[in-house]
């Protein structure tokens, strides 16, 4: 098997990838993550996932490089990481009682052959009706400022959900393992 490289500094993605019990290393790519004019949310996450993988190909020859990117979509608006308490409160108030779709772009690049598999895995969260007090209690307890949509599904964020739907719950956290396993199998990687 070619060495496996996760093109990310995300602890959430590292924890997910560790579930597959495959040896891997991490390196954080330096790319421009700006949204292009006219680009759909799906096209954005697929492009960024592939760019992250390709950005490391020159320094990691003969590797299987995993790139991933995620955005949350509320209505027709992309909502990213809030970075601040105020933006997080704003995002969660807007999401109250609504459905938020998380789109996770995934790329697996074989830097030896140049073959790249790219996909997008959606996952929808139907939010409870939330009041300002509930939201503020949650934000003080969890501080989810580095998470798209302002919540950590692997933590207290689940208390904000009414229900969820999608093909792979791990995509909500940022790395769709079911689809990744398909891609790895296509590259001849045995799991387990």
Task: Describe the secondary-structure layout.
Elements: E1 4-6, H1 11-18, E2 24-26, H2 41-55, E3 64-74, E4 77-79, H3 85-95, E5 99-110, E6 116-127, H4 132-142, E7 161-165, H5 170-173, H6 177-186
Parallel strand pairs: 1-2, 1-3
Antiparallel strand pairs: 3-4, 3-5, 5-6, 6-7
Helix pairs in contact: 3-4
Task: Give structural attributes.
7 strands, 31% helix, alpha/beta, 192 residues, 6 helices
Structure, explained:
The record marks 12, 70, 154 as: Important for substrate specificity. It is an enzyme of class 3 (hydrolase). GO terms for molecular function: nucleoside triphosphate diphosphatase activity. Nucleoside triphosphate pyrophosphatase that hydrolyzes 7-methyl-GTP (m(7)GTP). May have a dual role in cell division arrest and in preventing the incorporation of modified nucleotides into cellular nucleic acids. The chain is of the alpha/beta class. The protein has one domain: Maf protein, CATH 3.90.950.10. Helix content is 31%, strand content 26%. It has six helices and seven strands, in the order βαβαββαββαβαα. The chain is elongated and about 50 Å long. The two termini are 13 Å apart.
Task: Report a brief summary of the structure.
The protein is of the alpha/beta class. The chain contains six helices and seven strands, in the order E-H-E-H-E-E-H-E-E-H-E-H-H.
What kind of sheet is the major sheet? 7 strands, mixed
Q: Total helix count?
A: 6
Give the low-pLDDT segments.
none
Helix content: 25-40%
Order of helices and strands: EHEHEEHEEHEHH
| Number of E-type strands | 7
- The number of domains: 1
Query: Kindly state the mean pLDDT as a whole number?
Result: 95
Q: Which class do the helix and strand fractions yield?
A: alpha/beta
Tell me the radius of gyration.
17 Å
Sum up the overall morphology in one term: elongated
CATH architecture heading: Alpha-Beta Complex
């Amino acid at each position: 098997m070619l060495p496996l490289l996760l093109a990310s500094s995300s602890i959430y993605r590292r924890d997910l990838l560790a579930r597959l019990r495959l040896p891997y290393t991490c390196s954080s790519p330096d790319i421009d993550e700006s949204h292009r004019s006219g680009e759909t949310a799906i096209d954005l996450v697929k492009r960024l996932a592939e760019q992250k993988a390709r950005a490391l190909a020159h320094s990691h020859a003969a590797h299987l490089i995993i790139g991933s990117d995620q955005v949350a979509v509320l209505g027709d608006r992309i909502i990213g990481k809030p970075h601040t308490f105020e933006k997080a409160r704003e995002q969660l108030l807007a999401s109250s009682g609504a459905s938020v779709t998380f789109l996770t772009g995934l790329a697996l690049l074989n830097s030896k052959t140049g073959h790249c598999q790219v996909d997008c895995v959606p996952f929808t969260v139907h939010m409870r009706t939330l009041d300002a007090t509930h939201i503020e209690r949650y934000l003080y307890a969890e501080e989810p400022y580095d998470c798209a949509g302002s919540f950590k599904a692997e933590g207290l964020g689940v208390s904000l959900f009414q229900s969820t739907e999608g093909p792979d719950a791990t995509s909500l956290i940022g790395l769709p393992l079911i689809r990744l396993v398909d891609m790895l199998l296509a590259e001849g990687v045995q799991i387990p």
